[in-house]
TrEMBL record:
<dbReference type="GO" id="GO:1904680">
    <property type="term" value="F:peptide transmembrane transporter activity"/>
</dbReference>
<dbReference type="InterPro" id="IPR039424">
    <property type="entry name" value="SBP_5"/>
</dbReference>
<comment type="similarity">
    <text>Belongs to the bacterial solute-binding protein 5 family.</text>
</comment>
<dbReference type="InterPro" id="IPR023765">
    <property type="entry name" value="SBP_5_CS"/>
</dbReference>
<feature type="signal peptide">
    <location>
        <begin position="1"/>
        <end position="26"/>
    </location>
</feature>
<feature type="domain" description="Solute-binding protein family 5">
    <location>
        <begin position="103"/>
        <end position="471"/>
    </location>
</feature>
<dbReference type="InterPro" id="IPR000914">
    <property type="entry name" value="SBP_5_dom"/>
</dbReference>
<dbReference type="InterPro" id="IPR030678">
    <property type="entry name" value="Peptide/Ni-bd"/>
</dbReference>
<keyword id="KW-0813">Transport</keyword>
<feature type="region of interest" description="Disordered">
    <location>
        <begin position="32"/>
        <end position="58"/>
    </location>
</feature>
<dbReference type="GO" id="GO:0043190">
    <property type="term" value="C:ATP-binding cassette (ABC) transporter complex"/>
</dbReference>
<keyword id="KW-0732">Signal</keyword>
<feature type="compositionally biased region" description="Low complexity">
    <location>
        <begin position="36"/>
        <end position="47"/>
    </location>
</feature>
<dbReference type="Pfam" id="PF00496">
    <property type="entry name" value="SBP_bac_5"/>
</dbReference>
<dbReference type="GO" id="GO:0042597">
    <property type="term" value="C:periplasmic space"/>
</dbReference>
<dbReference type="GO" id="GO:0015833">
    <property type="term" value="P:peptide transport"/>
</dbReference>
<protein>
    <submittedName>
        <fullName>Peptide ABC transporter substrate-binding protein</fullName>
    </submittedName>
</protein>
Length: 559
């Protein structure tokens, strides 16, 4: 193993620990013509359905309320999904993923995959400049990829996304070859993600670890200012003329500015858009979605995110959850359908698989498979010796059957409420559930391994996302594999899926992987997260990318 590979492996283990913390958290096909993923589960937005004006209105400021604050505006370093809302206005990527899963040109005009599938050669646009005037070229691309690999950058999610990149060769000013350690089926698609956005080398070198507060890209908007916990402002890039295929407007944005207002409290955020203090607000609570649809001055835009749905991972390093029958008892003892219907009032889809319906290879046959069966759950626990006492709680060898359930705060998407309901449901089959809500997930989960169940999700565009969560080579301490799976059969499927270049074969591989994960009760899928935005009807043109993040290139405000 050469030095770069050792560096890569070390970096990957660190990265995976952090990528799993990225909620809604943090891929794809190989070459453009090979990408045949099914359409992302993108619900047509009212803006898309609405009749487009003959000419979009120009000018004005859009105020957009965010539910939480970004951590940094450095795409390579940021660890929270909310940052991507802003990152997409500032940075471009080499390629873009369309809603049908295909990969299209963006800053790269064309590319070629080597016969051994271990390098991509990209032709680059010649007319792009970063906001600070730095020219975009092969040297800039090389700088970006090497920066992501550099341990001093502390790139987490971005480093995981470009795996197995090892080096790059500048062919000429506008041609670059990216070299991979092994073939990768999702490498090209991952380059479309905002977290692999291309930053200005000049600015990144100038600001160092403060670049995330002084971001410079080549996107449709330039960074203006950031008032902590209050707002982030960006303004139109008048020189922009290289928009991607998933927006209509390829040139300078219609809006003069966007003000991202940070309003964590749900009622305040909702009230702000209802009173027109802001023109759009994200993450609308389920209980308000139906009523909002009836408001004359507002429109509701909703899109299912892609990746790994919100899932309860069962830790097999802990007894008795290392036993299949114990895990199956949890599957049959937790009434997921009631949880989703009660908390989300028909506005969220129930999840049935380790991946969301919009991903390549999603196995629809799993839907409506495992359902509540209290008798079966009790029978399974009886079979492995956990007997109910007079208090109705189970014990074995003098020890109560207790389950430690960890989730993070705050109560995002009512996840804490899910924990409370699971606590009540499992009591019916004699299991005591201790719920721990903690912000220190990195320490509690990834360092101390202190959980029997941990709830998590990830935004991604390729089923290879399963690798970081289920492959036995990914260790929990400083790594991923949340359920602690040590399954050679699953490893083999994930290894094949990661490098297979034929999408038809990949679909079959990942269907087998999904069935294995469910049949062996490694997890309990809960819901597919819909990103929801309430906006004034004066706002038109708001679209979403393949992952479910908002795009502002086409947005305009009518009078």
């Amino acid at each position: 193993m050469n030095k770069k590979m050792r560096l890569w492996n070390k970096l990957t283990l660190i990265s995976l620990a952090l990528i799993l913390v990225l909620t809604a958290c943090a891929s794809n096909t190989k070459k453009e013509e090979a990408s045949k993923a099914p359409p992302a589960s993108v619900a047509p937005s009212p803006s898309e359905k609405a009749e487009e004006p003959e000419e979009a209105a120009k000018g004005g400021e859009l105020t957009y309320a965010l539910a939480t604050s970004p951590d940094l505006l450095d795409p390579h370093v940021s660890r929270v999904a909310v940052s991507v809302r802003v990152l997409r206005t500032i940075y471009d990527s080499l390629v873009v993923q369309d809603a049908d899963g295909s990969i299209k040109p963006w800053l790269a005009t064309e590319w070629e995959l080597a016969p051994d599938s271990k390098s991509y050669t990209f032709k680059l646009r010649k007319d792009v400049k970063f906001h600070d005037g730095t020219p975009f070229n092969a040297e800039a691309v090389k700088y970006n990829f090497d920066r992501i690999l550099d341990p001093t950058t502390k790139a987490a999610n971005a480093a995981a996304l470009i795996r197995p990149y090892v080096s790059s060769d500048i062919i000429d000013e506008f041609t670059i070859k990216l070299n991979l350690a092994t073939p990768s089926a999702d490498f090209l698609g991952n380059l479309s993600q905002a977290l692999v956005g291309i930053v200005s080398p000049t600015a990144a070198k100038k600001f160092g670890d403060q670049f995330g507060r002084n971001p410079v890209g080549s996107g449709p908007f330039k960074f203006v200012k950031w008032d902590d916990n209050a707002q982030i402002n960006v303004e139109r890039n008048p020189d922009y003329n290289w928009g991607p295929s998933n927006v209509d407007n390829k040139s300078a944005a219609n809006l003069d500015t966007i003000s991202f207002k940070i309003i964590p409290e749900e009622a305040t955020r909702l009230g702000s858009v209802q009173s027109n203090q802001v023109q759009a607000a994200e993450s609308i609570p389920p209980q308000n979605i139906l009523s909002l649809k009836k408001e004359d001055k507002l429109q509701l835009l909703q899109v299912n995110t892609n990746g790994l749905p919100y899932t309860l991972f069962i830790n097999q390093r802990k007894k008795p959850w290392n036993e299949l029958k114990a895990r199956q008892a949890l599957q049959y003892g937790i009434d997921v359908t009631t949880i989703v219907q009660t908390l989300y009032l028909g506005t969220y889809e129930q999840a049935w698989s380790p991946i969301s319906p919009g991903l390549l290879g999603y196995d629809k046959s799993l839907e409506n498979g495992i359902k509540l069966d209290i008798d079966k759950a009790n029978s399974l626990l009886d079979e492995i010796g956990w007997v109910k006492g007079k208090d109705g709680l189970r014990e074995k060898d003098g020890k109560k059957l207790t389950l430690h359930y960890v989730d993070s705060s705050p109560n995002r998407e009512k996840r804490n409420d899910i924990a409370a309901i699971v606590q009540q449901q499992l009591k019916k089959i004699g299991i005591t559930v201790e719920v721990e809500i903690t912000k220190d997930v990195l320490n509690s989960v990834f360092v101390k391994d202190g959980y029997d169940i941990f709830g998590n999700s990830q935004t991604n565009s390729d089923p290879n996302a399963l690798f970081a969560f289920y492959h036995s080579l990914v260790k929990i301490v400083g790594g991923g594999n949340i359920p602690g799976v040590l399954d050679p059969e699953l490893d083999d499927l994930l290894n094949k899926g990661a490098v297979e270049q034929d999408n038809t074969k990949r679909v079959e591989i990942y269907k087998q992987a999904q069935q294995l994960i469910i049949n062996k009760a490694y997890i309990i899928p809960i819901y597919v997260f819909p990103y929801t935005v309430a906006a004034s009807k004066t706002v038109t043109g708001l679209k979403f990318d393949a992952l479910g993040y908002p795009l502002f290139n086409d947005v305009s405000i009518t009078k």
